[in-house]
């Protein structure tokens, strides 16, 4: 049910990173400098050729526009265009697209995000909304933002976020920095068939050993660990009534759009799982 095959392009990128680290670790200074110079010359050579290809495509009229769009949509080609500063969509537009892709998901958890400014490759974001008493939801939202930005704007130099989600207890949060270079990306696993779940229905899945339930609430897909916060029973045997998922064992109901909090604003809460574009983070 789960497709975890690695993208070949991702494998190549990882291989290049490993070789670059090995190159930097060479003890022979002359050999290291010579190899780095060769690598730089090859990059310039390929960059010049790629620029000529893109120029020829752009000059070929409407057909060229379609070809260019297809190339940009390809992750491997898009990465090369970014490296050589040939990507046809500016970074601010791509950051906006990334935030727009996660906004419905954030709104379902009582939050929102806005781009304040983009200066010198650093995006300044503001988180809005409230998930009172929901630290898991805050972490989920932050993870969703990082994933979207990493996919649409991997060339960001850094990320600064202010106005973190309000908490019910403890000091008022002040804002924080999340440099992209220090972010450890989660492992995203595609859940085949999740996008086919009809509104008002939920389905149980297994993401590399982690039991999950994915529910379609009014057109929004929400994922949670398959464990009742009250009794620990599997939620897959329960029932979904509108936005409320009821445990079949203990009868406790959980409000899925409100980050899985128990009915009546009790202290119990399900464990939300980031779910974006048919993938879950494990």
Structural commentary:
The protein has 282 residues and is α+β, with helices and mostly antiparallel strands. It has helices spanning 8-24, 29-58, 62-73, 75-83, 91-108, 135-152, and strands at 2-3, 111-119, 122-129, 158-162, 176-177, 188-191, 202-207, 210-217, 220-225, 239-241, 244-246, 253-255, 261-262, 272-273, 275-276, 279-281. A hairpin with a 5-residue loop joins strand 12 and strand 13. The longest helix is centred in the N-terminal third of the chain and has 30 residues, at 29-58. The model is unreliable at 1-6, 131-136 and 165-184 (pLDDT under 50).
Number of separate helices: 6
What is the beta-strand fraction? Answer: 15-25%
> What's the helical proportion of residues?
25-40%
Q: What is the strand tally?
A: 16
- CATH-assigned homologous superfamily of the largest domain: Fe-S cluster assembly (FSCA)
What distance lies between the first and last C-alpha atoms, to the nearest angstrom?
16 Å
Query: What is the mean pLDDT?
Result: 77
Shape verdict:
elongated
CATH topology of the largest domain: GMP Synthetase, Chain A, domain 3
**Structural class, from secondary structure content?**
alpha+beta
CATH architecture designation of the largest domain:
2-Layer Sandwich
> How would a crystallographer describe the biggest sheet?
4 strands, antiparallel
- Major β-sheet strand ordering: 1-6-16-15
